Amino acid sequence: MSKPNVLIVFYSRTRSTEILANAIAAGAVAEGAEVRLRRARELVGPEVMQQVPGWFDSAEAMNAKYEKPTEADAEWADAIIFGTPTRFGSISSELKAYIDGLGGLWFAGKLNGKAGSVFGSTSSRHGGNESTLLSIYAPMAHLGLIIVPLGYADPSMFKAGTPYGATHVSVHDTLVPDDDHLAVAEYQGRRVASVARSLRCVPSVTEAA
């Protein structure tokens, strides 16, 4: 049986979301998946980024590590997992710009039936982790992705995360994801890869006939 292809597209400014992305990738690989990790790019120039301490340098470092996501990545994938920091209770503009750029694949029906999942992080407690993840469910439904939530099907879920996807609260960038949050992220990678593999094995009506 061939490996399921899992695309993890994330935006991260101060590494919290990046760390979760890597844990999800590790879980997917453990489940036998082929993984592509991609970082969405900034929509503003260096002059704006340099007004926020550390933003420009962090972006430069992460962009050197991760390729920019493309339409070809989404077409290649059997599952797409989106990750974002919270921006006023919703998705970051950087990740949303990538999703908005998938219109050509959407129009051609090339995303229908792929697995989809989400994860994210926020700086402040009660800063909108759950509302952010749920805000991504809507465009995933429009793209035709089969949304894969986490539920409570793994013991890690009773210690951290949300039933909608892995999360983390950095408390104004003073904390990185701990073992409990990373365990949820790894479980998410395993779960999505498993679902993607199962979806690939289900024959269509015409194939079954």
Automatic annotation (TrEMBL):
GO cellular component, one term: membrane
Top-level class of the enzyme under EC nomenclature: oxidoreductase
Keyword Flavoprotein: yes
Enzyme Commission number: 1.6.5.2
One Pfam match: FMN_red
Annotated keywords: Flavoprotein, FMN, Oxidoreductase
GO MF, one example: NAD(P)H dehydrogenase (quinone) activity
Flavodoxin-like domain residues: 6-192
InterPro entries in UniProt: Flavodoxin/NO_synth, Flavoprotein-like_sf, Flavoprotein_WrbA-like, FMN_Rdtase-like_dom
PANTHER family: FLAVODOXIN-RELATED PROTEIN WRBA-RELATED (PTHR30546), FLAVOPROTEIN-LIKE PROTEIN YCP4-RELATED (PTHR30546:SF23)
Family to which this protein belongs: Belongs to the WrbA family.
Protein known as: NAD(P)H dehydrogenase (Quinone)
Source species of the chain: Pseudomonas reinekei
